[in-house]
Design brief:
143 residues, 4 helices, single chain, mainly alpha
Length: 143
Amino acid sequence: MREHIKNNLMSFFIIVTLVNIAIFVCGIVMAPDENLDYTAFIVPVIDGVLGVIPGLVMYSKRELTVKQMIVRDIIQLISIELIIFVFSFGFSGFTNIDIPRLLAIIISVALVFVGVQIIMYLFDFKAAKKMTDDLKAFQKSNN
């Protein structure tokens, strides 16, 4: 459980960073002349919290198969997309949808999700490689 919380905390900070980048890119492309106020600085933090919620809820104590992990990741992505959609447009947003903004949000959320998965994989890969190297060194020292 402690490792799960640590992974979600790391995911939170990665999400906040990638959301900042996504807001910058979308802002430059879709509204280059618009200025942001100070309240815009809290949006990535809120998005980070909202993006971590499905990961916290979908915790499993048992080891998942690759297929189960893929299904869980797809469910998480759909959940995050829906959460961010409701946060961005509200429940009344279903009647008057700004399609370019909606597409930008959907694509940005998907790219941030994939980016978080890739970065977390790289961290895990680096840790596994270090453990393997340490184990090889330990085995050499005992022979």
